Amino acid sequence: MLIYNTLSRRKEEFVPREPGKVAMYVCGPTTYNFIHLGNARPIVVFDTVRRYLKYKGYDVFYVQNFTDIDDKIINRARELGEDPLSLASRYVNEYFKDADALNVMRADIHPKVSGHMDEIINMIKTLVDKGYAYAAGGDVYYEVRKFGGYGKLSGRTLEDMQAGARVDVNELKRDPMDFALWKAAKPGEPAWDSPWGKGRPGWHIECSAMSLKYLGENFDIHGGGFDLIFPHHENEIAQSEAASGAPFARYWMHNGFITVNQEKMSKSLGNFFLVRDILAKFAPEVVRFYLLGTHYRSPLDFDDEKLTAASRGLERLKTSFNLLEEALVGYDSGAGGRPDPTLSLRLDELRGEFEKAMDDDFNTALAIGTWFDLAREINSSLHKDVFAGVAEKYAALSEARELFIDFNRVLGVFKTENGKIAIQGTGGESEGLVESLVDLIIEIRQEARKKKDWPTADRIRERLKDLNIILEDTPSGVRWKKQG
RNA sequence: GGCGACAUAGCCAAGUGGUAAGGCAGAGGACUGCAAAUCCUUCAUCCCCCGGUUCAAAUCCGGGUGUCGCCUCCA
C-alpha cells in the first residue's frame, strides 16, 4: 500500500511502526462555530483512510483533537458574552451532529486542550530545559534556529520564509520566526498556572503534547489540511522532535482545499458554506460521496450544481442496491449453492480493482469507478437473468451484495444498521403514515390502470412526483421511492 | 519576492512510458399503455502551447501561457 508522504514529497510503501497496528492523529477543528465544508473534507477523508486500514485488517487507533482554547474562541466568546470554554464545548457538540450525519466514525479519543494542561506545560518545560525555548515577559517562545530540521516538512529554509514574511512586530522574540509555546494571560482571558505565570498554550504545542500522550513517539500517520503544513505541522515537528529526541510522525498526509469559484473556501474570505446549511438541501450521503469523488490531495470545487450531479450518480448506486435486495427477498443466505461462476469471477475482479485503487494512496475517485462497475454488473445480471441455475443465481447475487456492502464499509457513504446498508425508499414493507397512505394511493391507481383509465393513473403519478414520491411501474408490481 | 500545486470531452473526474476508467448531461435502440428504472449502442484521433528524449509520452525533460495555494488565523 502506497501513501503520499508530504515529508518526502513522494508515495512511499506504508510500513507501520508496529506490524498490524496503525496509530494516527488528525488535527480537528477549533470549536468556535459550526464546521464548514472545508472542515468537513479532512474529517471525511481521514475517516475513509481509517476505514480502509481497518478493512485491510489493521488495528487502528485514531486520535482527533479539539482546540478548545484559542484566540478565535476567546474573541467569539467576548462578542457573545459567553464563557470561552462553554462556548467551545457547545460547538464540540455541534461538531458531532455534523460528523455523525456524514457517517464519520468517532475517534478512539477526542482530546481537548483544556484537559491536557499538565502534559503541555511539561513539554514546554522540557523544551526550555533543553535550550530550545526561552521565556520572555510571561510568554515562552520556541527558538527555531536551534532546531536543525526546521523547514523540512514545508520544504523551505528559514531564509526563504523570512524573505517574504509578513511578520508581526514582537520585540520579545529573538527571531521573527520564533513562535509562542505559552502566552501570558491578558485580563479576563482564561488562564492556567505555569512556571512562567498565568497563561495559556500556543496553538501548536497541544498537538505535540496530546499525540505524544496517546500515540507515543514515531506514530504512523498524521493528517490535516494543506494549509496546516506551515506553520502548524512544521512547528509540531520542531517541538516534538526537540523534546523527545525521536522522529515525530512517520507519514504526513494533507488534503487539498475545497474551493468556491476556484478560490479557497475559508472563514477569512467569508466564502464558506456550513455543513449544516448544505445538509438542509442535500442528503448527507450525497455530500460524503461528493467529497470522495475527487482524490483527496486535489482541490475540489463546490457548488450546488456539482452536488446535484453527484446526487444523480449516487442514485444509480442506490437503485442498484435496492434492485439487488429486491431480487434477494426470500433467499436464505445459508441455503448454499455454488455461486454462478461468471458473475462470481467478475466480482473477484472488481474487488481487486477496488483494493488496487485504494492501495494507491487512497484513490477514492478510482474506487468509486469500480463501484459503478459493480452496479452495472448487478443491473445487467438481473436484467438478462442468465445464470447457471436458481441456486447459483442467488449465491452469486448474495456475493454481489457482500461486495457492495464492503465497498460501502470503506467509503462510508450509506448509513448502516447492524452491518446492513439501510437505504431508504424500497417501499414494499412499509411502516408509518406516509408509507401507508402511499400504498393506499398506489392501490387505487392500480385499479384505474386495470380499467385503462390512463389520465387518472398519470395524474396520480404526476401529483405524487410533485411531492417527491416517484412511482415506477414494473412487470412485478409498483415500486415507489422518495426522491432526494 | 521566495516556495509549491494544477491544466484531460458540455460539466465533474481517474490515468506517471505502450496507445484515453467512471459519473453527470446528450443521441439512438430494447422494455413500458405512457413514463420511470434498467439493459444495449453511441459520445475526446486525443489530453493548455512550443520544443526535446524515446521504437513508443496525456504521462519524462526544457521553455512558455493560465489558474490556484502556502509564506498571517485558516481544514
What is the topological layout?
Elements: E1 2-5, E2 10-13, E3 21-26, H1 37-55, E4 59-64, H2 71-80, H3 84-101, H4 117-129, E5 133-136, E6 139-142, H5 158-163, E7 179-184, E8 199-201, H6 205-215, E9 221-225, H7 229-244, E10 251-255, E11 258-260, E12 263-264, H8 275-279, H9 284-292, E13 300-301, H10 304-328, H11 341-359, H12 364-384, H13 390-411, E14 416-417, E15 420-421, H14 433-450, H15 454-466, E16 469-474, E17 477-482
Parallel strand pairs: 3-4, 3-9, 9-10, 11-13
Antiparallel strand pairs: 1-2, 5-6, 6-7, 7-8, 11-12, 14-15, 16-17
The protein binds one RNA strand of 75 nucleotides through helix 1, helix 5, helix 7, strand 12 and helix 10.
What does this structure look like?
This protein is of the alpha/beta class and 484 residues long. The strands form six sheets. It has a four-stranded parallel β-sheet, with helices on both faces. Strands 5-6-7-8 form a four-stranded antiparallel β-sheet, with helices on one face. A three-stranded mixed β-sheet has the order 12-11-13, with helices on one face. The protein has three domains: 2-127 and 206-279, Rossmann fold (3-Layer(aba) Sandwich), CATH 3.40.50; 304-421, Up-down Bundle (Four Helix Bundle (Hemerythrin (Met), subunit A)), CATH 1.20.120.640; 433-482, no CATH class. The radius of gyration is 27 Å and the shape is elongated. The chain is 46% helix and 14% strand. The protein binds one RNA strand of 75 nucleotides through helix 1, helix 5, helix 7, strand 12 and helix 10.
